[in-house]
Specification:
Layout lengths: L4 E4 L6 E6 L2 E7 L7 H18 L7 E8 L5 H12 L8 E6 L8 E8 L2
Parallel strand pairs: 4-5
Antiparallel strand pairs: 1-2, 2-3, 3-6, 4-6
Helix pairs in contact: 1-2
Amino acid sequence: MQPIRRWRGQPQGRNRMAAYQDLVWTVATHDDRAADIQEQTRRALAVLDKNLAEAGTDKTRLVSAQVFLADMTMKTQFDAVWNEWMGPDPDHWPQRACVGATLAGHCLVEIIVVAAAK
């Protein structure tokens, strides 16, 4: 049986990333009170890039994404940053869901992705 690889995060009781067989799961948020939705999104996406690279993959291998927004009226602003990050090639776009949710602290966005390993 292949082991599950896990990368510790700071919060107690959960990891920032896990991998099993050919899949990698990771999550990113940003909690800077001074940052607007677009800046928090940029910072969260930078964390995803770092985590995926550490697991040996990248955003072109995303299979799915779940986006949680503290305020759905900010979706257009979020989408502008997301679409720039994803790029114009639809062959690299994941299946994505975006929902409104009450998020902890000053967090405006939380992103969970699943990527295929390279």
